[in-house]
Specification:
The protein has about 550 residues and is α/β, with parallel strands linked by helices. It has 16 helices and 14 strands. About 45% of the residues lie in helices and about 15% in strands. The strands form three sheets. The protein has a six-stranded mixed sheet with strand order 7-6-5-4-3-14. It has a six-stranded mixed sheet with strand order 8-9-10-11-12-13, with helices on one face.
């Protein structure tokens, strides 16, 4: 029987149920190295999340997005169960905390911190679930991976499809939060993003993940056969071919854009009103005076349409004639954001609305925002959990609208569809607003909630894809940036502050915007998320089949 001797000379027997093992001096450094590697994985996971955040505005280092999915799986490969999920979640949480840090600029401390943490924790679950599911396929680690080429190809496609499936879920569950999908990081890659006219933004995400995972497999093949200069080619051939075909088609699509037959001169007012002033009672007249002053300057450019952003100034009954007289005397219709109230019996319902005021009067119905911002426009569970109201600066909740609205400009020759605030981040939502005869998408937004920072650029990056997906130009009128117009190919053509470099200041700008759908109704606009739903079905089917196969093996059905 093995015994141990203590420093005092006492002889002790080993505890029952435990075996003794000698560790040689040569194996001790190896053991320490494994432990250090395990600890380093947590740091590497955090760095992966940071790298993904840096791919988005700002600083928009879009090349990092092509490396992150593969690097993410490399970090979690070989881990099991909750340690695997922990590593996956750390990377996802760092990505969300860094990319959503603009929430901390909100002038409401409790709402800023709680909202930043809660939204980061929630939205991190989706990419973490992806790394957890895909990492579970790599239980023995990448170094011991002995898969055939066909199996590596299948896994790469599964990884890309499952990423898309989780983005589809994120865009819809609990009202949806489709912010900074992976494909959005490529918003400045004009040839590549043209595929969104067929697949939506999900097609770009798919290509990025597939290429990234295939790159990891290619590196593994190089390490295993360093003498073979083409060992990488089998794993990268198909992803590179797909990217080449997509980008080549994108170049053709960009170059064959016809000259616009009709244009609309749009004047946009950016009042840059601080959010604290908007929340402060008794400031309505002051805010309206500022907006009217800028509007009169903008009307001197003789536009065809005047835009005000969301929630910039209330128009009281006493001052309504002043606004209407401005529109009537200039002959220029005004599209503006307004709070709309409807009384149903003894209940009053408030809506965040867009109203078109023409020289002969307002056009009805107004558009009522359909997708509301949690804690910004409604307080969840406010009746059941009254304390929730302290997490938000709003006094009460808005009601959601039910359907899109098309506004016809005077003369009936041009039709525009309004969106409000972050509604231009929803792929399926934007599609619902564009009909075959829609000439222009218009987004009225108030990004003054977040001061002057990266949110304005991230918001515009997400909006780029609504123009590509639906093949129509998009005009954005913001309180403090980014006031701009985006063409039907997704290129940000002009924006307020382009010459001065200050996109956040107060002023106005005029754009000459082409109208219509120059390349016709897009496949995405006609068929919707056919590609996204296909990825979701495929990912679920493959995962279910693999789980059933494992149960069969462990249950003794196969020896």
């Amino acid at each position: 029987m093995a015994r141990t001797v203590t420093a005092g000379g006492t002889i002790r027997k080993p505890k029952a149920g435990r075996s003794t093992r000698q560790i040689s001096s040569g194996s001790l450094p190896a053991l320490i190295g494994v432990k250090q590697l395990g600890q380093a994985r947590w740091l590497l996971a955090a760095l992966v999340g940071l790298a993904l955040a840096l791919a988005f505005p700002e600083p928009r280092w879009l090349g990092l997005a092509w490396l992150v999915p593969g690097a993410w799986l490399t970090v979690v490969a070989g881990e099991r169960r909750w340690r695997l999920f922990g590593l996956a979640f750390v990377a996802a949480l760092v990505f969300r905390l860094v990319s959503l840090r603009f929430l901390l600029a909100m002038p409401h401390t409790a709402g800023a911190i709680s909202g930043w943490l809660a939204l980061s924790l929630y939205s991190a679950l989706y990419p973490a679930a992806w790394a957890w599911v895909c990492g579970g396929w790599l239980r023995d680690g990448l170094a011991k991976l002995e898969w055939t080429w066909f199996r590596r190809l299948g896994f790469g496609l599964f990884a890309a499809a499952s990423w898309v499936a989780l983005e589809m879920a994120q865009a819809r569950l609990l009202g949806g939060y489709p912010w900074n999908f992976l494909g959005v990081s490529q918003f400045e890659n004009l040839p590549l993003i043209q595929v969104a006219s067929v697949t939506g933004v999900y097609g770009v995400s798919f290509l990025v993940v597939w290429a990234s995972v295939s790159l990891v497999f290619a590196v593994l093949q190089i390490r295993r056969a360093p003498a073979n200069p083409w060992s990488w080619s089998a794993d990268l051939a198909l992803p590179l071919l797909a990217l080449g075909l997509v980008c080549g088609w994108g170049v053709l699509r960009v170059t064959r854009l016809p000259a616009p037959a009709n244009r609309l001169t749009v004047a946009l007012v950016q009042p840059s009103i601080p959010q604290q002033l908007i929340w402060q009672r008794g400031t309505g007249d002051e805010r309206l005076d500022k907006v009217l002053e800028l509007s009169r300057l903008a009307l001197a450019t003789q536009p065809d349409l005047l835009l005000w952003p969301e929630a910039c100034a209330p128009i009281s009954a006493e001052r309504w004639p002043e606004v209407f007289d401005m529109v009537k005397s200039s002959g220029v219709p005004l599209l503006f954001g307004a709070d709309d109230v409807e009384r149903v019996g003894e209940v009053e319902r408030y809506y965040n609305s867009a109203v078109l005021l023409a020289p002969d009067g307002p056009q009805f119905p107004s558009y009522r925002k359909r997708r509301l911002v949690m804690f910004g426009e409604y307080i969840p569970f406010e009746k059941a959990l009254p304390f929730m109201k302290y997490l938000s600066p709003i006094g009460g909740s808005f009601s959601a609208g039910t359907e899109p609205v098309q506004f016809a400009l005077p003369g009936g020759k041009q039709t525009l569809a309004p969106l409000i605030c972050f509604e231009d981040a929803f792929p399926h939502g934007g599609r619902e607003h564009v009909l075959a005869g829609t000439d222009l998408l218009v987004n009225l937004t108030n990004d003054g909630w977040f001061g002057a920072g990266l949110e304005q650029w991230q918001h515009a990056a997400n909006a780029v894809f609504r123009a590509v997906e639906n093949g129509v130009p998009l005009v954005r009128c913001a309180n403090n940036g980014l006031t701009c117009w985006i063409d039907s190919l997704g290129q940000v053509r002009q924006f307020y502050g382009q010459e001065s470099g200050d996109i956040y200041g107060a002023g106005f700008v005029s754009f000459e915007v082409p109208l219509g759908q120059p390349l016709g109704q897009t496949a995405y606009n006609r068929r919707g998320d056919l590609f996204g739903w296909g990825c979701l079905v495929a990912a679920v089917a493959v995962a279910a089949a693999r789980r059933a196969k494992r149960r069969l093996h462990t249950g003794g059905g196969i020896g």
